[in-house]
Amino acid sequence: MSGGHYRYFFTEHFGLPDAFYEDKRILDVGCGPRGSLEWATMARQRVGLDPLVRAYAEFGIDRHDMSYVEGGAEAIPFPDHHFDVVSSINSLDHVDDIPRAVAELTRVLAHDGTLLLICEVGHPATATEPQEFGFEILDAFVPPLVPIDVSRLRFIPEAGVLGSCLAKEPLPGDQAHGILSARLAQNT
For a disulfide at 76, which of 15, 18, 104, 138, Cβ 3.0-4.6 Å? Predict the structure, then answer.
């Protein structure tokens, strides 16, 4: 998939129109090298944060219409309440310290901001996804955030995390392995 598919996840998937991003500052944590925010030309600022930014240079990220900043979710190099929208799409299980990452994601979110979260839950830890957590990970954000829209989706191995979101199949019963999709807002 090219970077263009990200628009769907930031808009339709979360029930947000393009106009929602008008003049907003957006931070995509764990953005990867595919230009996840290039579509958001109406935004005031578009920043992708990833610890592998230097390695992504070989993929031509310098040609993307967004900024990349090298860093991890546990120490976001921006001031408090700087971003109107913060996203963590398929990246939270890649961090080293979940409590610190959650604290940083909420710290940089504006007082009236929106947090977008998509993550695989209930999978065993791996070398690249060292964190194991279930749907209760949502509780780590509440408060100061409140859930606005939460979905529990079936994980389809051959489709991966984002493909599973596109399929929109509800998680059957009390199954522990799936996809958590949540839009949260500051509790003001």
Answer: 104
CATH, residue 148: 3.40.50.150
In a 10 Å sphere around its CB, with 0-12 CB exposed, 13-18 middle and 19+ buried, how is residue 126 labelled? exposed
Confidence of residue 172 (pLDDT cuts 50, 70, 90): confident
DSSP state of 102: H
Which strands sit side by side in the sheet containing 145-154, from one edge to the other?
67-70, 45-50, 25-29, 83-89, 109-121, 178-186, 145-154
Per the structure, the complete domain to which residue 76 belongs is given by 3-186
> For residue 107, which amino acid is it?
R
Q: How many domains does the chain have?
A: 1
pTM, whole model, 2 decimals? 0.95
- How far apart, in Å, do the first and last CA atoms of the chain sit? 37
Give pLDDT tens digits for 109-145.
999 999 999 999 999 988 888 999 999 999 999 999 9
* The residue to which tokens 């579509």 are assigned: 39
